[in-house]
């Protein structure tokens, strides 16, 4: 049975979605390992995360190439075009998440040189879990083409912001209490900021899924936004 | 080519299938016979036997003279299915058969057969499809590749996120080549959440117990020292010290009770509770029980409950009572004398509506959001008339032993575990928990439980396009 397997247009489109899902899985692992590295002060894991980031870059380039090729050769219309563009945009967002995870891992290498700060680490862990759950939910929504789940992620972005603001206050208290912790706290603050931005990327992906499924560009302005931090600064 | 299927396959698979089937039935019987931990090797070996036969049989039957690839079966899973399908479906562990053509086509791995357990766990809706749409974890995918193209058995730990985080061990085994030239591998997942949880809970318990019990213990031994020493003859001091000591001992007992119940809840957190509970009657019981305490503190309890039968949820009554009790007890602690605690029960809300803020200008945070579950919830809302909570405290409220700064520890003595317990119980019930606070006016805690589908007598909120999921 040496028949030649011709991939259909449908297959090519599905491959694009699948590539994105695979990239998503890798991103989840990177973010999860990045958080684990900070929490457990594991430098080996942190170095592994930094080293693995390249794979995400390669995957993103690959998805982009495949998408452009599909647009050029198959000239997809309507639904199919949206699917193609969505894959490209999601890959871009995932790649950014990967960069942020790499940055978290790099900061771990500095943080392990300082004294451990367990209450802070717990806060980071909690925020990390929340953000990771957000990323998982949105990717599940993407692979299942589930608009409701995507919208649920989109409308709950404020939880991550609240955690970030709370961590910000906590870090300030630490830094004011003991100036020797400032270096470590500043790095922690960036870790928290990175997590918050990964959450934002998850929200972006939810918007892209909404666009892919419905074709409408904006979801509306119903999203609750917290500007507690803005008020205080 | 003739239209008859190749006879060799059928001759082979008939008796061998029966043998394999008997084998697996034996293993199942053995497992049911009280073996606490069924041997993985036995399981996998039996599953392997049946599956190889199954795949070979199916391939032999589906490959027709036109050369149609056997990858996409068109018939529904249970109709006219050969006997092995029901055997595989009866396996408690999720099982997938994965096929692939080329090593380089990384996204081309497809699952061609899944059992019921796998379908439930991975939310797979189709008989066959791309593997990455079901499992994205890079480690598991690598293990599958190893089995497909390296021909090696391999293992990976598969951590599924989500509200009730689960940890599974993935075993991948090569199944050789299918008649159409694609390579096959078997993926068996085994739930190890219990083991992991037990380890984690034990570690947490030890850490918490040793740390938190130390303070009251130190104070107890301090007083014992004093009573033995210079306070031996001082009647007044002895009386005073003994009162303090008994308070500390009570605190230790409460702490141990709470720690134990937290451990118990955590261990079962990923197993949804059985049974039905009427929220209204459970909450009424709690109000009755806490009435004397409220009178003692000069706080009025203001219940606003629907009639019985409107808010029936699936859940463990004792645990639901514990949720209500902890929330009302907390509200009592934070309400001033002459204040009031409102206890409201609203049925038939969507998850979003249940967690939505009640007042404008309030700080609100969802402390626990359920995964995609049923559509309607019943919410228990407990509002105190205290000073409210500052926004920055909200994310940490369910942390163990977290105390809001400036809280007087003497008068408002709690263990610091109440809300942690509430959160874990809510998570076990696949419910949610939200807090809302206005500084100076008080805080509201909303705990919402999934309603039993179809139990709602009065449709309060119409839900268009509601899909009832098979439970």
Would you write up a description of this structure?
Chain A: Plays a role in the regulation of phosphate uptake. The complex is a heterodimer of chains A (233) and B (471). Chain A is mainly alpha-helical and 233 residues long. Chain A has a single domain, classed as Phosphate transport system protein phou homolog 2, domain 2 (Methane Monooxygenase Hydroxylase, Chain G, domain 1). Chain A is built from 8 helices and no strands. In chain A, helix 2 packs antiparallel against helix 3 and helix 4 runs antiparallel to helix 5. The longest helix of chain A has 34 residues. Chain B is an alpha+beta fold. Chain B is 43% helix and 19% strand. In chain B, the strands form 3 sheets. Chain B has a 6-stranded antiparallel β-sheet with strand order 3-2-1-6-5-4. In chain B, strands 8-10-12-14-13-11 form a 6-stranded mixed β-sheet. In chain B, strands 7-9 form a two-stranded antiparallel sheet. The N terminus and C terminus of chain B are likely disordered. Classes of the chains: A mainly alpha (233), B alpha+beta (471). At the A-B interface, helix 1, helix 4, helix 5 and helix 6 of A face helix 5, helix 6 and strand 11 of B.
């Amino acid at each position: 049975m040496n028949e030649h397997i011709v991939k259909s247009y449908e297959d090519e489109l599905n491959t694009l979605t699948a590539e994105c899902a695979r990239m998503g899985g890798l991103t989840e692992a990177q973010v999860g390992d990045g958080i684990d590295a900070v929490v457990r002060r594991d430098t080996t894991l942190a170095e592994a995360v930094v080293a693995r980031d390249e794979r995400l870059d390669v995957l993103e380039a690959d998805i982009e190439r495949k998408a452009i090729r599909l647009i050029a050769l198959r000239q997809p219309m309507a639904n199919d075009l949206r699917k193609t563009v969505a894959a490209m945009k999601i890959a871009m967002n995932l790649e950014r998440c990967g960069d942020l995870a790499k940055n978290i891992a790099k900061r771990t290498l500095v943080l392990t040189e300082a004294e451990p700060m367990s209450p802070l680490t717990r806060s980071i862990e909690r925020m990390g879990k929340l953000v990771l759950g957000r990323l998982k939910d949105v990717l599940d929504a993407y692979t299942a083409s589930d608009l409701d789940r995507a919208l649920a992620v989109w409308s709950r972005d404020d939880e991550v912001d609240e955690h970030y603001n709370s961590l910000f206050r906590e870090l300030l208290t630490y830094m004011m209490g003991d100036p020797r912790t400032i270096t470590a706290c500043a790095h922690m603050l960036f870790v928290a900021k990175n997590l918050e931005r990964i959450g934002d990327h998850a929200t972006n992906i939810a918007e892209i899924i909404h666009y892919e499924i419905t074709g409408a560009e904006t979801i509306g302005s119903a999203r609750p936004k917290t500007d507690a931090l803005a008020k205080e600064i | 080519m003739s239209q008859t299927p190749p006879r060799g396959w059928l001759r082979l698979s008939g008796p061998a299938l029966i043998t394999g089937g008997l084998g697996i039935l034996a293993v199942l019987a053995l497992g049911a016979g009280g073996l606490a931990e069924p041997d993985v090797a036995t399981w996998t070996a039996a599953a392997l036997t049946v599956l190889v036969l199954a795949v070979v049989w199916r391939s032999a039957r589906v490959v027709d003279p036109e050369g149609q690839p056997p990858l996409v079966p068109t018939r529904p899973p249970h109709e006219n299915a050969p006997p092995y399908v029901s055997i595989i479906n009866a396996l408690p562990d999720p099982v997938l058969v994965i096929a692939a053509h080329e090593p380089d086509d990384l996204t081309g791995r497809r699952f061609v057969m899944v059992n019921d357990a796998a379908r439930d766990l991975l939310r797979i809706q189709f008989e066959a499809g791309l593997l990455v749409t079901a499992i994205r974890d890079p480690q598991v995918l690598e293990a599958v590749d190893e089995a497909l193209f390296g021909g090696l058995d391999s293992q990976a730990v598969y951590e599924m996120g989500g509200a009730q985080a689960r940890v599974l061990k993935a075993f991948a085994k090569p199944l050789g080549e299918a008649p159409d030239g694609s390579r096959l591998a078997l993926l068996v997942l085994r739930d190890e959440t219990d083991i992991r949880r037990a380890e984690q809970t034990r570690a947490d318990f030890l850490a918490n117990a040793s740390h938190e019990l130390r303070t009251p213990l130190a104070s107890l031994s301090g007083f014992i020292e004093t009573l033995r020493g210079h306070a031996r003859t001082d009647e007044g001091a002895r009386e005073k010290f003994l009162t303090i000591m008994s308070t500390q001992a009570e605190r230790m007992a409460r702490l141990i009770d709470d720690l134990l119940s937290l451990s118990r809840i955590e261990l079962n957190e990923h197993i949804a509770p059985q049974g039905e509970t009427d929220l209204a009657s459970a909450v009424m019981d709690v109000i009755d029980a806490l009435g004397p305490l409220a009178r003692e503190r000069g706080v009025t309890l203001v219940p606003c409950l629907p009639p019985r039968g409107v808010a029936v949820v699936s859940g463990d009554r004792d645990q639901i009572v514990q949720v209500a009790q902890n929330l009302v007890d907390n509200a009592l602690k934070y309400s001033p004398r002459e204040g009031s605690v409102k206890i409201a029960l609203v049925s038939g809300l969507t998850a979003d509506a249940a967690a939505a803020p009640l007042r404008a200008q309030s700080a609100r945070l969802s402390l626990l959001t359920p995964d995609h579950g049923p559509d309607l919830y019943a919410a228990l809302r407990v509002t105190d008339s205290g000073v409210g909570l500052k926004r920055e405290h909200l994310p940490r409220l369910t942390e163990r032993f977290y105390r809001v700064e400036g809280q007087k520890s003497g008068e408002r003595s709690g263990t610091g575990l109440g809300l942690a317990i509430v959160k874990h119980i809510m998570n076990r019930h696949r419910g949610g928990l939200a807090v809302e606070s206005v500084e100076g006016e008080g805080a509201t805690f909303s705990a919402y439980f999934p309603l039993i589908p179809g139990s709602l007598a009065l449709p309060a909120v119409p839900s268009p396009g509601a899909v009832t999921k098979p439970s």
